[in-house]
Amino acid sequence: MVRTISIPQTLIMVIFLSTVYLSTVILYYKLNNHVKLGAGYGVDTSVELESDFSDDVKLDNAGKFILSGMYTFEDISASLELRYSSVEYTVSKIGSINISNDIANHNKVDGNHSALLFHWNF
């Protein structure tokens, strides 16, 4: 998976290759036949950022809070979802250097993100 991270003023864009395994549970409340609102919890495990430009970064497993809004189309068996995830990662290793807990806890990586997802049911 390729992720794009913006870094203000230094570099416009850096592309990292990321490895992550996700576990997610979202409970939805159906407002009507087309709209559902949901909230949930997820866990990101084995989070790693691999880069050709600098040392690889290994991050600790992290829990995240998820908010979701989903619209189901009437004519086709598909839905469109807008999802927001709130997560903070703790750096455990940069290259071959282990990071101490004191330093890592004061320098967390913000992983908050939004996504627009298209679900096609078949």
From TrEMBL:
The chain crosses the membrane at residues 6-29. Keywords: Membrane, Transmembrane, Transmembrane helix. It comes from the Bacteria. This is Outer membrane protein beta-barrel domain-containing protein.
